[in-house]
Specification:
By secondary structure, this protein is an alpha/beta fold. It has a single domain (5-272), classed as Spore Coat Polysaccharide Biosynthesis Protein SpsA, Chain A. Helix content is 34%, strand content 25%. The chain has helices at 36-46, 61-66, 71-79, 83-93, 109-115, 117-120, 140-151, 212-216, 229-239, 257-270, 275-284; strands spanning 5-9, 30-31, 34-35, 51-56, 97-102, 125-128, 132-135, 154-160, 170-178, 181-189, 200-208, 242-246, 250-253. The strands form 3 sheets. Strands 5-4-1-6-11-8-12-10-9 form a 9-stranded mixed sheet, sandwiched between helices. A hairpin with a 2-residue loop joins β9 (170-178) and β10 (181-189). α3 (71-79) runs antiparallel to α4, α5 (109-115) packs across α9 (229-239) and α10 crosses α11. It is globular, with a radius of gyration of 20 Å. The relative contact order is 0.15. Bound molecules: 1-O-phosphono-alpha-D-glucopyranose (G1P).
């Protein structure tokens, strides 16, 4: 069965970006002129996903408005002959069939995915988390969908991280591997520093079979007192096989401030119109006189 639906969880409070996220969803913070969530939706659409459900919460209406029509704005841009801007505004309204469901309580990622179960029904589906933007020739989620098509099993996207960072991620204890596809002994959510079974970290891209909902429905509390998707994947792996796939692609961490600033600089350097000015600006900085160095 083909993967046609995706879940994008976006109900988090965005505490790492407070006070900017007091009244604005963190998913609407822009890298250059595009909100981070649009990069994620574009990845899903490029992979051939047709229906996307975003799991939202309080103070997240701006996300729905962003992917909706803005007729007044469109008319205004048309009258002024600003055709490029008009096109970009229309583009984000017509990317995919967008659906929304609210997670009423903050009970963790596993609970957010479970909230969208009725939309998914009995089909395999994709999950894309918004904290990482991945740039790759073949979209990261498409690479996982390709692996799903040959195996028929759930596929969890992983990449290697430094050992000092393993406690921030879900970590895979791998068994055999063939061309980046690993069978897995166990999946552990945020292991204590120094206890991680490997440095292969779950990187916010998943293709899951609907059986995952049987385990999410148990509402088991895991790491950090939350219902963890990784724990449900671990149960699914004990009863069926779940693979990890080391996908290709450049990963940009936009889930915390330093990563967000680095991503902004990198994207500006990659931008035809901005790149030269940014390079000139960086060259002009007098690093010796910087405060707080
Ligand atoms: C979530 C997952 C974790 C994964 C990470 C990737 O954690 O629970 O397994 O490694 O995303 O970004 P969070 O960063 O939401 O705490």
């Amino acid at each position: 069965m083909k993967v046609k639906k995706a879940i994008i969880p976006a109900a988090g409070l965005g505490t790492r970006f407070l006070p900017a996220t007091k009244a604005m969803p963190k998913e609407m913070l822009p890298i250059l002129d595009k909100p981070t969530i649009q990069y994620i939706v574009e990845e899903a659409v490029e992979a051939g996903i047709e229906d996307i459900i975003i799991v939202t919460g309080k103070h997240k209406r701006a996300i729905e408005d962003h992917f909706d029509n803005q007729k007044e704005l469109e008319m205004n841009l048309e009258e002024k002959g600003k055709s490029d801007l008009l096109q970009s505004v229309k583009y984000s309204s017509n990317l995919a069939n967008m659906f929304y469901v609210r997670q009423k309580e903050q009970k963790g990622l596993g609970h957010a995915i479970w909230t969208a179960r009725q939309f998914i029904g009995n089909e395999p589906f994709a999950v894309l988390l918004g904290d990482d933007i991945v740039q790759a020739d073949t979209p990261a989620i498409k690479q996982l969908m390709n692996q799903y098509e040959t195996t028929g099993k759930s596929i969890i996207g992983v990449q290697q991280v430094n050992e000092s960072e393993t406690h921030r991620y879900g970590i895979v204890d791998p068994l055999d591997s063939s061309e980046g596809l690993f069978s897995v002994n166990s999946f552990v959510e945020k292991p204590q520093p120094g206890t991680a079974p490997s440095n292969l970290a779950i990187m916010g891209r998943y293709v899951l079979t609907p059986q995952i909902f049987d385990y999410l429905g148990r509402q088991e509390i895991g790491a950090g007192g939350e219902i963890q998707l990784t724990d449900a994947i671990e149960h699914l792996n004990s009863n069926d096989c779940v693979y990890a796939y080391d996908f290709e692609g450049e990963r940009y961490d936009v889930g915390e401030k330093l990563g967000f600033v680095k991503t902004t600089i990198q994207f500006a350097l990659n931008d035809k119109e901005m790149s030269k000015d940014i390079i000139d600006f960086i060259k002009s900085i007098n690093f010796r006189t910087l405060k707080n160095k």
